[in-house]
Amino acid sequence: MPWQAGVEGRRHAARGGSRKRAEGAGARHQLVFVDRLVATLIHLRHDLPHAVLGLLFGVDRSTITRAITEI
What we know:
This protein has 71 residues and is mainly alpha-helical. The chain contains four helices and no strands. Helix 3 (50-57) packs across helix 4 (61-70). The protein is elongated and about 50 Å long. The protein starts with a helix and ends with a helix. The mean pLDDT is 88.
């Protein structure tokens, strides 16, 4: 699409060259889908704070918050 090509051209110029990382590179989910689903269900059913769920699953509170938001 011409519009998308224009956007990518402006991004290329703004960053001064090619992408610095490959697509898909970066952090991966620390919780698999089933764990994210279970954490969401526990949160909805028992209204546990995200910090407590983080302790139960061995991850940070922000990881639980992101997982619940995604589900």
